[in-house]
Write a structure and sequence with these properties.
Helix 3 packs parallel to helix 5. The chain is globular, with a radius of gyration of 20 Å. Helices cover 29% and strands 27% of the residues. It is α+β, with helices and mostly antiparallel strands and 201 residues long. It folds into two domains: 30 residues; 168 residues, 60s Ribosomal Protein L30, Chain: A (2-Layer Sandwich), CATH 3.30.1330.200. The strands form two sheets. It has a five-stranded mixed beta sheet with strand order 1-3-8-9-10, with no helix packed on it. A five-stranded mixed beta sheet has the order 2-5-4-6-7, with helices on one face. The chain starts with 8 loop residues before the first helix and ends with a strand.
Length: 201
């Protein structure tokens, strides 16, 4: 067997490639990933979704928001590469009376996303959903029975069931906030937790 000396450029290149392949294989079995080298697209425009807001896009952009006890819900049509992201703050629109912010509540946010995507694709039958968030940010809220994160998770899933939209992936609960990046070119969502973890949905 041929042995190449240390410092040989051919050997170094081979080792680097082996490490890269190993990293890619490892990603398939782990939640924590190196998103900068594998999953992110450096040329995508970043579109920010504010609290209680929502965005629907058919362009290859990255929809981004940050949540704590709130929910980031992403709907996607993988055929048309069209999707939307809403930043849900509360479970039911009845809590806000006539407040005109459909993205703020689980029930109206899903309605708004479905309507917006359907206007572009003319179909909602191909939609799938991914959600992230619903953290319990303050221990005192659990003692008082005010875990708004858990209520948001439950209400969001109920809204999806009403529309018969399949929930294919989720990263919810816990006690850390999250930054959500939804790549419409690939349908991949990268979740960066405030404790440093990175997860792929």
């Amino acid at each position: 067997m041929l042995s190449l000396p240390e410092g040989n450029p051919v050997k170094d290149a081979g080792l680097a490639m082996a490490k890269r392949i190993g990293a890619c294989q490892q990603v398939e079995h782990q939640i924590v990933v190196d998103t900068n080298t594998i999953y992110t697209h450096p040329h995508l425009e970043e579109v920010r979704v504010d609290m209680a807001g929502f965005k629907v896009e058919s362009r290859p952009v990255e929809l981004v928001t940050s949540v704590g006890s709130c929910i980031g819900i992403c709907l996607y049509d993988s055929i048309r590469k069209c999707g939307g992201l809403a930043h849900i703050m509360l479970p039911q629109s009845s809590l806000g009376l006539q407040e005109p912010l459909p993205g703020k509540y689980a029930d109206t946010a899903v309605d708004a996303l479905v309507k917006g995507i359907r206007e572009i694709t003319k179909s909602e039958n191909r939609l799938s959903a991914k959600i992230a968030g619903g953290a319990n940010m303050f221990a005192s809220t659990l003692a008082n029975g005010l875990d708004i994160g858990a209520k948001n998770i439950r209400a969001t899933k109920e809204a999806l069931e009403r529309h018969r939209i399949r929930l294919i992936s989720e990263d919810v609960g816990g006690s850390h906030g999250r930054r959500i990046s939804f790549n419409l070119a690939s349908g991949i969502i990268i979740v960066r937790l405030h404790n440093g973890e990175i997860r792929k949905l």
